[in-house]
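Predict the 3D structure for this chain.
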Amino acid sequence: MTMSSEKSDETPISAVRIQRLIVEVRGQRVLLDDTLATLYGVTTKRLNEQVSRNEDRFPDDFMIRLTWDEWESLRSQNATSKTGRGGRRYPPRAFTEHGTVMAANVLNSPTAVRASIQVVRAFVQFREMLASHKDLSRRLDTLERKYDAQFKAVFDAVRELMTPPVTERRPLGFRPPSPKKGK
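Done. Predicted structure below.
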């Protein structure tokens, strides 16, 4: 093992960086097989071999196989390179939080174990962030309802002030001047 690979083994990728790699597919947050393989320090081929050998450990809620359309959609969103340069023979696998842990177990390497800890932390932070956003949204809805009820009179008064008063208008059109007396 070279010095550079030893150093990269000691410094796992941060959970914040992993969060940027998580994508949403079919309403689930997942990591794609090539991303997960990179995080775990193996090739995508090696990861997929181990998953295939241990398919019973990866039920549908742990891993899904993307369709070609889903894969193309993700590729266009992320501006990845063009096809036809080696490419994939099969659409990628997408691993949920539980699937990423199971993948680390079937790989059984120290790098995969350390990286899986960061991956789980990233998923947990995502859940916490989502929960706080839902709570904030709920609070804003409550405030908005209170705000509307309390200030209805103010809004009505402002609208009344914005409406110009109705004045007596002169009829439109030309009216010749009335003749003056004495001329």
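Residues 1-10 have pLDDT under 50 and may be disordered.
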